[in-house]
Amino acid sequence: MNTMAGKVVLITGAARGIGAETARRLAALGAKVALVGLEKELLAATAEECGPDAGAWEADVTDWEALETAVGGVMERYGRIDVVMANAGIAPTGFVRSIDPAAFERTIEINLLGVWRTVRVCLPHLIASRGYCLVVSSLAAISHAPGMAAYAASKAGVDAFSDSLRAEVRHLGVDVGTAYFSWIATDMVTSADQHPVFGKMRSRLPGPLGRTYQVSDVGKAVVAGINRRAKAIHVPGWVGGLKLFRGIVNQLSLPISAMGAKDADQAALEDIKVRGAEASRPVGPGGAAGFESRRAR
Fold first, then answer.
1. What is the largest CA-CA distance in the chain?
2. In the sheet where 83-86 sits, what is the strand order?
3. Which residue among 132, 151, 180, 213 is the active-site one?
4. What are residue 33's DSSP bridge partners?
5. Quick check: helix, strand or coil at residue 49?
6. Does residue 236 have a cis peptide bond before it, meaning omega lies within 30 degrees of 0?
7. Is the separation of the CB atoms in 135 and 86 below 8 Å?
8. Cα torsion at 259, 262, 263, 265 (round to 10°)?
9. Residue 166: what are its φ and ψ, rounded to 5°?
10. For residues 79 and 297, which has the higher predicted lDDT (pLDDT)?
11. Would you call 151 a catalytic residue per the annotation?
12. Distance between CA 33 and CA 234 in Å, rounded?
């Protein structure tokens, strides 16, 4: 059953990847999608693909004023917000001892504080509509791989944040879901695969842990999850089973991960000697836009 017709859905990080795919699918079901993010031209083009009821608002999710202005614009146009998908995120590549500190901290700022700010600004409107909030976490919140400390910490924080939020707003009629995705064929993952150090690390992951899944798989799952106001969305499905044993998974994988990290750690240091801070900056065009937005401000 389609419950999305006429619903207003605000999506952050909507210019490309998972956010754009979800927007297009929701618009096809009759939803009015409000796209919030960076990369202004691409964001506008995505909104145009979604039809006349779609709108685009340029905003950095870590910028309170820009975010409040964008949400105010959404309310002015549509008069309500029924669903919020806090999706904006970036991923750097680097070990804790050698990663560019600005890249590490910007990842926490966008992936965790950006989610908190998005939810905080939108929450009064979700309460008014008794709506649904979907927070995008990751498989990285469950399985903590070397070279991904900033991303894993931010996504684990988002996971905990959504659990607390779920309990806080249930009596207000607002449902909260958390999405957990493995490696998805977005620009972010494709760019990470091209990294001279971390691309090789990922290529050594065994079986389904190393497989890349299609953006369309995520789009289908997210739309279905939003439609039923799901508590959790997993792509692929086995991520949900892995989540039940997260403590055991990390303990059992530690010796193997540590062995793989030894050579990669040294390779990362050598890469930084050659390319400097650029070697551990957020990957992909979306990551670059998120990183540069802070410097521009």
1. 56
2. 55-58, 32-37, 8-12, 83-86, 132-136, 175-181, 232-235
3. 151
4. 9
5. helix
6. yes
7. yes
8. 140
9. -55, -45
10. 79
11. yes
12. 22
The predicted-structure confidence for 99-146, as pLDDT tens digits, reads as follows 899 999 999 999 999 999 999 999 999 999 999 999 999 999 998 888
Say how far apart CA 190 and CA 193 lie, in whole Å.
5
Place of tokens 């039923």: 228
**Protein fold of 8-296:** Rossmann fold (3.40.50)
Q: Which residues contact 93 (CB under 8 A, 6 or more apart)?
A: 99, 147, 192, 195, 197, 198, 279, 280, 283
Hey, what amino acid is at 244? L
Residue 252: Cβ within 10 Å count: 11
Joined tokens for residue 67: 């975010």
Full-model pTM: 0.83
Domain boundaries of the chain, sorted by first residue = 8-296
Helices (H), the chain: 17-28, 40-49, 64-78, 101-108, 114-129, 149-169, 187-193, 198-203, 207-210, 215-227, 238-243, 246-275, 284-296
